[in-house]
Amino acid sequence: MTNTWQDIKNADVVVVMGGNAAEAHPCGFKWVIEAKIENGAKLVVIDPRFTRTASVADYYAPIRPGTDIAFLLGVIRYLLEKDKIQHDYVRAYTNASLIVKDGFGFEDGLFSGYSEETHSYDKSSWDYELDDQAFAKIDDTWQHPRCVMNLLRQHVARYTPEMVSRICGTPQDKYLHICEMFASTSAPDKAMTSLFALGWTQHSIGSQNIRTMAMVQLLLGNIGVAGGGMNALRGHSNIQGLTDIGLLSNLMPGYLTLPSDKETNFEDYMTTRLFKPVRPNQMSYWQNYKKFFVSFQKSIYGDAATPENNWAYDWLPKLDIPLYDVIKAFEMMNKGEMNGYICQGFNPVQAFPDRGKIRRGLSKLKFLVTMDPLDTETSRFWEDFGPQNPADSANIQTEVFQLPTTCFAEENGSLVNSTRWLQWHWKAAEPPGEAKSDIWIMASIYHRMREMYRKEGGAFPDPILNLTWNYTDPTDPDPEELAKDMNGRARTEIKDASGAVTLKAGQLLDGFAQLRDDGTTESGCWIFSGCYTEKGNQMARRDTSDPREQGIAPNWAWAWPANRRILYNRASADVEGKPWNPKKPLIEWNGNKWVGIDVPDYGPTIKPSDGVGPFIMNAEGLGRLFARDQMVEGPFPEHYEPFESPVPNVLHPKVRSNPAARVFPDDLAAFGLAPEFPYVATTYRLTEHFHFWTKHALINAILQPEEFIEIGEVLAQQKGITQGSWVRVASKRGHVVCKAYVTKRIKPLTVDGKPTHVIGVPIHWGFTGQARKGYGANTLTPSVGDANTQTPEFKAFLVNIESTSAPVA
Amino acid sequence: MADLQSQDYIRRSATTLTPPSVRNHEAEVAKLIDVTRCIGCKACQAACMEWNDLRTEMQSFEGSYDNPKDLDPSTWTLMRFTEHETADGNLEWLIRKDGCMHCEDPGCLKACPAPGAIVQYANGIVDFISENCIGCGYCVKGCPFNIPRISKVDHKSYKCTLCSDRVGVGLEPACVKACPTGAIMFGSKADMADWAGERIVDLKSRGYENAGLYDPPGVSGTHVMYVLHHADKPSLYAGLPDDPKISAAVEFWKGLIKPVALAGVALAAVSGFLHWVVAGPNEVQPEDEVEAQHLLAAERSKRDTENRYIADEPA
Asked: For residues A5 and A550, what is the distance between their CA atoms, to the nearest angstrom?
């Protein structure tokens, strides 16, 4: 989230699209209700189904799964055509005025630079035209034909209301009504907040879904302001922490990126990370990358990381492909290229697409280690559970080690919530049986591995043998010790220019501004620096006081970065530093410095007249309507159909789906076609359950006991399916047999003149736990991910459905 | 929940004794359920199960989100979901938390023939005192909202207590505490009516012309009230009675027939005494015990066979 949960109450319009906040985030949703009651906000819901969120909405419109970009590019067209953008904001704070290179173009669904062979782009033309000082050229009159604003106008011209309705199936009147509601927040003192979740990420164009709304929000002047922002509601209590700490295969902590195998030396690696400003006077904060990187290396390798060995750069793994994501891992298992798998707090038999492929992959392993508080399906994949998991145990040679772990309530630690707060929690109960903490298990594995490397050598022992490990109990590091590692400390006495000591050796840092690139500081995760200082554990703070009652509460827990609650908050004030909305100011310029209720996302004493842009992480200091080379499938979003879709891409039939997506040949062969699988399916969660966990708890099982799908009345009638009866839903990859909920909440959509039916598939049931056994929605879903992140396309695929009888156990 | 003294009673079933009502100075309480801000998450249901330590039988999916399917002796509150199409073709998903309404003039209490099995406290809560309940089912007939349920195991009647044990020590009911959107509020009835008024103004400004408070006069008002978008048609909300009244039969019994019937009861008592003198007392026979055990065992084994595989529940 750019903003906080509490800040939602400041919104004038709340749009829930690409998510189902009431259903999946019921506790946080209280702030939407608060916005409605206390701020007179209007709630807009755009969703294929009439959801629990829609049940309390002021306005609802349906949309075909996987067509959000068409809808939102249509919104942009509307805003530009009706001149409903916040002009001063767009001109000063976005890259609308910058001029793009001559070679950039878009034709028949492809941007310039596409290679048919590699399914990827040469992005060199996706950039600004530079002047002789290497700064981007600018035309703030927006006359130049290649300024971003004019290229954007040209790009969205195709997305007329007729076209939007033809692609999305949203009735034109409803679509236009929503455009009007969005447009009302282009006034400088009005704000709209966008709440989204997996409904946008789980698409082969997921990242671009989110980007398109971010562009809408920039045009409306809704980024950086109270009640605005792009707010990703994370799906798990610590999934934000997972990304922050770099648990993706191409990341290191704090969004530092792993080197590729082409970056064989440290200098090459650094030159591509230290983004130089492309406009004069910009902060371009990633210029500090080396300070963060060196401090990270010192944190894990201590004295062994030296200037001479380039801070142990050679000990880092180098990627030969962009990402070793989960889809790739299971592809490798199936090919026999991955023989062991450690599943820590992860249940891929339920959670990853094409369950048949997941089970085949696990069956080919030599060993599988599961670490989980629950008896997961993954740890039991080899056992025959009847039709829901028909395993031939005798022919599965995988050795499974099932390690029971503590759950969050049985240990101290911190969780990072959606709004970037690190909140400390305290152990409330003893773990049952033999359960051990993840820290204990990982430390124990590390010690044994290190011993083996010590005794037996090995291909490359250095990265393991040189790890620092300074904990009171080396077999069970204390969460507070680990938190201090993340925060960082001075390794030696540090003096300022006058010679005065600013940091004593070993002193915990106050924040990342103190990090240095000379090896004198260390920090395990630079964005967390400030969470555990000499003043104590900032994450454990529980002060609810909230100046101006705007949902900032600066002394409750601690937020990264730098305890800043609203990102880009410099943009809440105009060019002179006066708040756009005087009733809800965040920070303002008082003549000497920036003051207000939040920590400025800006240099605290940078004068407004210096012309430093509010988006300090970007090299141009501006919000990007044109993404340069940051996205794999284009600097502007474009509507591409899901990989399984019932209709052609009416905009460019030859380029139907994301041209830059990675698709493995066996997965491609497992995509279904509309003649055989004519209905659009989408998966989702229900309030009664949390993923695949709460089916292990009796109360939740009582509240939603059994697997079902949702089908509209019209299709049910056509297929002879009655309320609560058994149905068989099949995709090219597998089938589920479960009950049908015949509902008015899903209506056929008219797409390109033809009726399109949507079938809803909730995900929660499996074959372990207390609820009734289910087949699992991922039995049906295709194995293809977002082209940037490889998040699987769970939200739009093709199925067929027929009436059947109960499965025979 | 018989955790309050009888001095707290203002009404007591099947008795002519006037309770001392020493706490009449207390404000009447009310739970206000704002249907228009309810998201149907069932946190109230879960909280009710947790606080009262109830786990009804796990059922199956039968074509709606209502689960369990109905109120039962171990399900004292239940979300009921209604898909409603408006005249202009738009959809509304009306979600109502069902449970005891705690009527000011409780039909169950009036109908109850067992002395002290149903009581009403000074704060308005209507409570069932299980040890006095004879399981006759008259409360079910007397209730205009179809709430009480008789246990097949002990033949006693059960329903929501409005967490009288919590309210008695100054806490809000468990469902109120758990509600994430503030759709369930609790306080004095006067404050709740005031707050409802504010909500109704907001709803009218959003186009719900018939928004209003459900506090039905047919039972002299209730201590559980609803804010409805369509207060003109309560029955849209899974059959909430439009104009609930205590059934005419109950009123007839209480008014005219009772004295006559009491004579009949006296006659029955005399006959019973004679039977005792002549034939000896009626006792719980071994076969009755066997029948009760059988019922319990059947429920247990049903649960087991439906869950061939039961994992260890995390502690």
From this structure: 11
Q: What CA–CA distance (Å, rounded) separates A653 from A103?
A: 24
For residues A25 and A74, state if they share a domain. yes
A778's tokens? 């991922």
State residue A599's pLDDT score. Answer: 98
End residue of a domain, out of A188, A207, A235: A235
Yes or no: say if B31 and B173 are a contact pair by the CB < 8 Å rule. yes
Of B36, B46, B93, the CB nearest to A703: B46
Q: Is the pLDDT of residue A146 over 50?
A: yes
Question: Are A78 and A223 part of one and the same domain?
Answer: yes
Token reading at A90:
């767009």
Instruction: State what percent of residues in chain A have pLDDT above 70.
Output: 100
Domain interval for residue A24: 6-235
Rounded-to-integer distance, Cα A403 and Cα A441, Å = 9
- The reported pLDDT for the residue numbered B301 is 66
Helical spans, DSSP H, in A413-535: 438-456, 462-465, 479-487
Residues of B in contact with A768 (CB under 8 A): 309, 311
Q: Which residues of A touch B91 (CB under 8 A)?
A: 50, 60, 744-745
CA atoms within 13 A on the CB side of A639: 29
Domain boundary among A194, A220, A235: A235
Mutation choice for B interface testing from A33, A727, A739, A761 by most B CBs within 10 A: A33
pLDDT (mean) for A65-84:
98
Query: Which class would CATH give B6-246?
Result: alpha beta
Residue B213, min C-alpha distance to chain A (Å): 17
* Residue type for position B38: C
Contact A697 B313 (CB under 8 A): yes
B29-34/B184-188 β-pairing: antiparallel
Angstrom distances, CA of residue A65 to CA of A756, A760, A795: 11, 10, 7
Total domain count, chain A = 3
Average the pLDDT over B102-107 and give the result: 97
CB-CB neighbors (< 8 A) of B44 in chain A: none
Contact call for A707 and B61, based on CB within 8 A: yes
Is residue A570 assigned to a domain?
Answer: no
Q: In one letter, which amino acid is A258? A: L
State whether A702 and B181 contact (CB < 8 Å).
no
Chain B residues with beta carbon closer than 8 angstroms to that of A383: none
A719, A803 Cβ separation under 8 angstroms: yes
Q: What is the pLDDT of residues A6-39, one digit of tens each?
A: 999 999 999 999 999 999 999 999 999 999 999 9
Per the CB < 8 A criterion, the answer to whether A10 and A229 are in contact is no
ipTM summary value: 0.95
- Cβ–Cβ gap A58/B45 under 8 Å: no
**Average pLDDT estimate for B164-192:** 97
Residues A88, A579 contacting (CB under 8 angstroms):
no
Q: Give CA–CA dist A213/A131, Å, rounded.
A: 31
Q: Which residue of A has its CA nearest to B229?
A: A56
Closest B-chain CA to A23? B41
Q: What's the gap between Cα A85 and its chain centre?
A: 27
Nearest chain A Cα distance for residue B51, angstroms:
12
Range 4-63 of B in CB contact (< 8 A) with A? 36-43, 45-46, 49-50, 55-63
* Tokens representing residue A288 in the block: 């500090």
- Mutation target for B interface from A6, A699, A707, A725: give the one with most B CBs within 10 A: A699
User: Nearest Cα to A341, choosing from A403, A400, A391?
Assistant: A400
Contacts of B196 (CB under 8 A, 6+ apart): B32, B34, B213, B225, B227
Q: Which amino acid is at A293?
A: F
Alpha-carbon gap, residue A572 to A584, rounded angstroms: 9
Eight-class DSSP state of A73? H
* A679 DSSP β-pair partners: A799
